[in-house]
Structures are given as C-alpha cells and as structure tokens.
Amino acid sequence: MTNRGAVEVGFIPLVDCAPLVVAREMGFADEEGLDLSLRKANSWSAVRDRLALGALDAAHMLAPVPVAMSIGLGGRPAPLDALSVLSVNGDVVGVSPAVARRMRAGGAMPGFDDAEGVGRRLIGAVDGRLRLGVPFPFSMHAELLYYWLGALGLEAPQALDVRTVPPPQMAQAMADGEIDAFCVGEPWGSIAVENGVAELILPGSAIWGFAPEKVLAVRRGWPDEEPETARALMRAVWRAGRWLSDPSHRITASELLSRPDYVNVSAEIIDRALSGRLVVNPQGDERDAPRFLEFFDGAATFPWRSQAIWIATRLAARNGLDRAEAARVARDCFRTDLYRENLGLIGADLPGASEKLEGALDTPTAVASAAGRMILGPDRFFNGEVFDPTLAG
Amino acid sequence: MAKTIRIAVVERDRERAMLIVDGLRAAGDYDISVIGDERGLSRRLQELNPDVVLADLENPSRDVLEELALASGPLDRPVAMFVDRTDDQLTKAAIEAGVSAYIVDGLRKERIKPILDAAVARFHMFARMRAELAATKAALAERKTIDRAKGFLMKARGLSEDEAYALLRRSAMDQGKKVAEVAQALVTAAELLK
Fold first, then answer.
1. Per DSSP, what are the bridge partners of residue A387?
2. CA-nearest residue of chain A to B103?
3. Mean pLDDT for all residues in chain B
4. B40–chain A Cβ distance below 8 A for any pair
C-alpha cells in the first residue's frame, strides 16, 4: 500500500460528520493509503477560515457556504468547492414548551410530516414578527425556514427574522425571549428535548424531501495540487457513506460518534438521528421521520449542480443580487466533474445529467445512469413547487 | 483628524479581555468596549456600532459575527473578517495567534494594522502566561510528590532527607526515568501497602 500522505479535515461535532469519522475509524482511509486526521472546531467560521487559508485540506461544511462565497456573500478569503455531498436532510425545527402550548390551543399538534399545518399553527401562536435561531447565516437551516415560512406568507425581514445563535446557546436564547423557535442539526434538537427546554415540531425533510445538508469542501485548486490525495479522500468518504447506509451498522456508528473526540454525546441520543425515530418532547413522545438523515441512498452523495443553483438563487433573491449570474457561478462550485472522474471507477453510479428538476419526485424513481440502476429518492417541497434549474434567474 | 475608531472586544475571560484592552490603549487612542456575555451579542453590537470587532478565532460566537457581513438594511454597514491577500503576513500572524477581526468596510489599512498588531501581541502574551501557569502548577505538584516519597523512604529505611533524595535520584537514573516518576511510583506503592 502506498502512502499518499497526510490529510487534515475539519469538522463540527454533529451527527452528520459521520462519514468522516467512519472513513477514519472503519479503515476506509487506511485502505486508500491516507493518513486522515480529523480536527474538531467550535464554529463554522473557524472551519471555513482554516480551510481557505490552507491550515486544513478539506472540511465538513454547510452546503450553502461554498455557494455563498462563490457569489460574494460573507467574508471570502478564498473560493471553496464541494467535492461531494456528505449528508442529505437531518435538521429539526423546535419551539419552547410555552410556544408549543400555544400551538396546541387550537387542537392537537398537526402531524410531524405536515409542514403546512405546523407552520400555520406556529405563525398563529406568536404575536408580531416570528424570530427563529439558526446556527449560521449561510446554512440549509436558514434556507429551509425562509422557504417554508415565506411560502406560508411571512416575508423576510418584515414578518420573519432568522438570526444566528450558536446551538449551545439556543435554549438560553429561547428562555430569554430572544427567539420563538430554532432550526438545528442533530444532536442539538434532541439535547434541547432532553433538557426539557424544547419540543420538536418538524423535521427538515418535511419542508424539502431531499435537501443537501453538508458537503465535503476544499479550497478551489487543492484537488489540482493534490489529485491523488483528493481522489483517495473522496473514495474513503464515499465508501464510509455506503457503510453508514446499512442499518446493521447503526449501533457501531452511534458508538463511534459518541466518543469524546467526536460528538461527545451519548450513543442513545445519536441513534435517534441515525434511525429517524425522534423523541420530540420532554414527555417522551416519539415520531418517525422517514429519510431523516441520508448518507448514501438515492444518490445522496452526488453534488447536483441544480442543488447549488437552488441555493444560489434563493440567496441572491434575498440579498439583492442578480439571480442568473449567481446561478452561473454557483453551479461550478459543485464539482460533478471530479465526482465522476474519481468515484465512477470504484462503483459509484453516475447519473446521465449533472442537473435535475428539484422537487419533482413523489416516490423512489429510477433514472438514466452509467450503470443503469440509479434510484433517486422522493424530493418534494412541502408546497409541491418544482424547481427547474434551466429557468433560474 | 479622523474620528476615533470604536473597537468591541468579544471575550468571556476577564483577565484576557483586560490584557487586550491594555494592549490596545498602548497602541493608540481608541474607544474600546468589552462584551463579556455573549447572549444577545447581535443586539449589543448594534448598540455599540463598532468599526472593529475582535474575537478569539475559536470563540463559538464567531458565527454570530458572520451575520454582520450581511448588510441588509440601509443603516447596516458591511463588515468582513479581516483577511488581506496583500498582507499575508499580517493575516497569518492573526490566524496563528488565534485572533479574528471584523472590520467595517472602508477603514484604511494603516489604521487597522496597529490594532491587529496589538491584539496579536496580547493574544500571544496571554497564551504564554497560561502555559507558564500550567508549568508552575505541574512543577509544584511534582515537588509535593517527591517530598512525600522522600518522607516515606526516611521512615521506612531510616534515611536522612538528603540520603532519601539521593536514593530516588539514583534509581531514576538507573531506570532512565524522571525523579518525579519514580517518586510517583513509590507513593502509589506506599498507598497500596498502607
């Protein structure tokens, strides 16, 4: 086995960093001759800056961050690219027990899959501007909230205020009356429930059925400087995602992630996200969320350019930028070219196209692919809208 | 005469915050505020309306500061983390020291540099002080262990203090270990035999 060298990858302690942890701990990185070091960080800003300045080679990153940087939003020390999608879905929306009580004033809580019903009830339960906390300004958490509540008639910023609150401070911000609700990734939703400070009202997947959540991000140009290392890393992480998609590996995965070096939360709590069976309130009620968090199935790892375009046009519209131009530059930062080149030979099925309609599928659907057996998962938006990337702008 | 630059320092550790403030005062005439409680950080910053925000690179609240980079209202001013490609050294020095600086758009570089230099120096100073404190604590703990080991030897073998220490040092040399390690082993064994 040749040693292709050391690679340093940054991550935030969240359940969806699993493909990186599994790549290291289950030997997929070793198999590729890769000496994979994982570097934990406290904030997305810190991961992004280290990555952009070359202190990290790659990172677990919010899917909208490379897109936002490519269209000039936020600080941009250096452009970033997404080599593959690390995870799809996995966010939860939660409210304080007081808001949950007011939501129940009009009858039983609408179903955990009923984004419209839950949304209308939430809007009715809060006077004035609805304030929601998310972990980062450029995140799927923020995008899902703007999309969901915007479609139900709340315009930002007049009626809807989405602001950044670090997840460990989310419960306190709710107790201080700074926010009415939050959208976070696991394990933060479950931790808030465990601490008795929140009730989960909706999984992100009820808003968009197949939302790219985290990507494997690198500095633009790094895959050209280190093509062997980039290929080895992409392969190890892709194989880790495939391993995670086998339900019989769930217990092992929860145990690995629970270690102090990684998420540092009990395996039982981590298992809720991996199984999609969530405890939603301090009374212990459980709800099933299908496809709550995907690492592999339904071509989850493919960095669809249409996903980047969707994110870009949403960001551009909110920030007064030209949508067509945003769509044009954003599509290039989702590197379907490298995905095809590096993963095709080891068995990743490759779709015929790199863009697709977003939100068009109700059921798992077979599509044209290199091996002819690619099944895409249901990807509906809650309001039935279909996004056509060729019409973007 | 340009107007006084307003600086907000986001730092929970009081000692470190004071150290940074002192450094900035020595570097120039600035209007400095410290935010020690990160709850309601955006609101506090809106009230203070600073030209420069300094925070530890590792501070989890940095993600809140990113929001400042989005100028959404007519009164909001775009702010970005200070990363200057033309002055890689200054940027590198800041990153290595663990300083992140958010600078309001349009502030001239020659006005930023002394602020960053002062912050970088004080961040380093604090890291050094912390390392020294840790080293002192470790040395004190080692000395206590060695004293206990000596006491045990003096009692068990009827040695003087100097002889007990010589014995410890000799066995440490024989085993290629530190005196403190041999002393620790002896103390552990002595506890077991009690």
1. A358
2. A75
3. 83
4. yes
Closest in B39, B83, B95 to A75, CB measured: B83
Q: How far is B99 from chain A (nearest CA, A)?
A: 11
- Residue pLDDT, tens place only, A184-207: 999 999 999 999 999 999 999 999
Write the secondary structure of A309-376 as one string of H (helix), E (strand) and C (coil): HHHHHHHHHHHCCCHHHHHHHHHCCECHHHHHHHHHHHCCCCECCCCCCECCCCCCEEECECCCCEEE
A45, A75, A173 ranked by CB distance to B63: nearest: A45
Single-letter code of the amino acid located at A341: E
The answer to whether the Cβ–Cβ distance between B83 and A77 falls below 8 Å is yes
One-letter amino acid of A387: F
Report d(CA A214, CA A61) in Å as an integer: 5
Query: Angle at Cα A297 formed by Cα A334 and Cα A383, nearest 5°?
Result: 75
Indicate the helix (H) or strand (E) that contains A86: strand A80-89
Residue B89, C-beta contacts closer than 8 angstroms, at least 6 positions apart: none
Q: Name the residue among B42, B59, B70 with its Cβ closest to that of A73.
A: B70
User: Please, what is the Cα angle at A17 between A250 and B97, to 5 degrees?
Assistant: 150
The Cα A317–Cα A306 span in angstroms is 16
Measured between beta carbons, the chain B residues lying within 8 angstroms of A136 are 63, 66
**Residue A247 burial (CB count, 10 A):** 9
Contact A135 B63 (CB under 8 A): yes
**Helix (H) or strand (E) run with residue A163 in it:** strand A160-164
Is residue A107 within 8 Å of A257, Cβ to Cβ?
no
Peptide bond into A77 cis (omega under 30): no
Name the residue facing B64 among A55, A138, A166 (closest C-beta): A166
A79 touches chain B (CB under 8 A): no
Whether B89 has its CB under 8 Å from any CB of chain A: the answer is no
Contacts of B63 in chain A (CB under 8 A): 43-45, 135-137, 164, 166
> Tens of pLDDT along A279-326?
999 999 999 999 999 999 999 999 999 999 999 999 999 988 999 999
Instruction: Name the phi and psi angles at A171, rounded to 5.
Output: -65, -45
Q: Which two tokens stand for residue B6?
A: 């307003």
Distances (CA, A) of B79 to A123, A265, B33, B63, B168: 32, 35, 18, 13, 61
What is the spatial distance between Cα B183 and Cα B52, in angstroms, rounded to a whole number? 52
Tokens linked to B115: 């602020």
To which H or E segment does residue A375 belong?
strand A374-376
Enter the ipTM.
Answer: 0.77
Kind of pairing between the strands at A80-89 and A293-294: antiparallel
Distance from CA of B132 to the nearest CA of A (A): 25
> How confident is the model at residue B83, as a pLDDT?
53
Say how far apart CA B96 and CA B117 lie, in whole Å: 12
- What global pTM score does this model have? 0.85
